[in-house]
Design brief:
Low-confidence stretches: 205-210
Radius of gyration: 18 Å
Strand content: 25-35%
Order of helices and strands: HEEHHEHHEEEEEEEE
Mean pLDDT: 79
Largest sheet: 8 strands, mixed
Strand order of the largest sheet: 1-2-3-4-6-5-8-7
Helix content: 10-25%
Length: 269
């Protein structure tokens, strides 16, 4: 669930002072109710995050919208953070086996957008980069749990891409794959976000020391300026490696265009 199920650019602590109205609350609850109905329910009514397991893989779905405070504050509550830490602890067997964990959220962790950290980005508050303390907290929880492999699933920026990277600190290094697919914007056309709107790669700053905190590096493998849906397939090999295949499907031309394959990425992590 993201802002468009409620109101464009909506979040708790909205920057322009438009407080959460009764209509916003109704839209939020209705959107989440539809989502839960499709998933079979089973989620507490007073929160918008949950977890599930399917086909031997564990998924955590974060709420990065309804608890978001003004930029520079928290993107998630301490209650949700503690729940996520408990979910990681409960995933100990999967971590020990080297199985990938899946974490989904409405906005990408990475690739970062071109303006990440700028005054405009911080003012808009529509990404992890506007909440650096929460991002460092998220990274630290993953590294402390010694997660070996992580697949991030997200939407929101009207771009579709796969990025592969490494998250590390002084005590642990982990492989991370970020799959971003904004679903199908039908019956509307693509927002046409320019391809240069993201930082396609990131390397730690020269001279930064591994002991200085979490360090992320990544390279974008597939990039499209289309709103796409994505099918993600993951399989393990006898040598302990895992293969991820991301297949993107988009609209062929101006709606009501037909669905067509946009791109496919295969990577080992």
């Amino acid at each position: 669930m993201d802002d468009h199920e409620i109101r464009d650019d909506w979040f708790n602590g909205l920057r322009n002072g438009r407080d959460d109205s009764a209509n916003d609350t109704l839209r939020r609850e209705a959107a989440f109710g539809c989502l839960m109905a499709g998933l079979g329910g089973g989620v507490a009514a007073d929160r918008f995050w949950y977890s599930f397991e399917t086909s031997g893989f564990r998924f955590a779905v974060l709420d990065l919208r309804t608890e978001r405070m003004p930029p520079g504050g928290r993107i998630w509550s301490r209650t949700q953070r503690d729940w996520f830490q408990s979910w990681l602890a409960a995933s100990a067997d999967h971590i020990k086996e080297g199985r990938p964990l899946f974490v989904a959220g409405s906005i990408p962790v990475f690739p970062f957008n071109d303006g990440a950290g700028s005054a405009e980005d911080l003012g808009r508050g529509d990404g992890w980069s506007a909440y650096p303390d929460s991002l460092a907290e998220f990274f630290s929880l993953l590294l402390k749990a010694k997660v070996p492999r992580l697949v991030l699933l997200a939407g929101n920026p009207h771009l579709s891409h796969v990025a592969q990277g490494t998250l590390a600190d002084a005590g642990h290094s982990m492989s991370v794959v970020s799959v971003v697919a904004s679903a199908l914007n039908a019956p509307l056309p693509s927002m046409g976000t320019p391809r240069g709107a993201i930082q396609a790669s990131l390397r730690p700053a020269p001279g930064s020391e591994p002991g200085s905190g979490p360090r992320l590096s990544y390279t974008t493998r597939t990039q499209s300026d289309e709103d796409c849906a994505c099918v993600v397939e993951v399989a393990g090999a006898s040598d302990g490696t895992w293969t991820l295949v991301a297949s993107f499907v988009g609209l062929d031309g101006t709606p009501p265009g037909d669905l067509t394959a946009v791109g496919m990425t295969t990577l080992v992590f």
